[in-house]
Amino acid sequence: DNRSQLSSLPLQILLYVNGVYYIFYFLATLAMIIYKSQVFSYPDDLLAPDLTVLFLMAILEVPRSYLGFKGNLTEAEAPLGLSLGLTVGSVVLCVYLLLWQTYVLWADVLLNAVLLAAYGLESGLKVTAIAAFVS
C-alpha cells in the first residue's frame, strides 16, 4: 500500500499540549473565581454565571478534544469538523471569561490569551488537515 499518511503530527502534539494546559487553565480559573468570591464583594447572582461558563467550557472540552484526536488519527474530516465547531463554542466561552466575567484579573487575561492563541493555532491546523483529507 503506497498510501501516504495525511494525519497531522503538529496537530496531534498541539491537541495533547492543549489538553494538559486546559486542566491547568480550569483549575487556575476555578481557584481564582473562589479567591475573587472571598476577597471582593462578589454579587451572588454573578458568581453562578461565571462558574456555569467555566464548567460548560470543561464539559465542551472533552468531546472537542476527543473528536480532534479521533478525526486526525483516523484521517476523517467529519469528527475533525465537529471538533472545529466545538472550538468555536469554546472560544466564545473563553472570550466571556476574558472580557465579561465579574472581575477580570491580569492572571485571567494571561490564561485566556494563551488559551485563545492555542485554539487559534489548533483551528488553523484542523482546517489544513481537513483540506488534506478531502483532497
Automatic annotation (TrEMBL):
CC terms in the record's Gene Ontology section: ciliary transition zone; membrane
Location of this chain's protein in the cell: Cell projection, Cilium; Membrane
Residues forming coiled coils: none
Keywords: Cell projection, Membrane, Transmembrane, Transmembrane helix
Main location per the UniProt record: other
Transmembrane segments: 13-35, 79-98
One GO biological process term: non-motile cilium assembly
InterPro entries cross-referenced by the UniProt entry: Uncharacterised_TM-17 (IPR019184)
Membrane protein topology class: Multi-pass membrane protein
Domain of life: Eukaryota
Pfam families: Transmemb_17
Name assigned to this protein: TMM80 protein
Gene: Tmem80
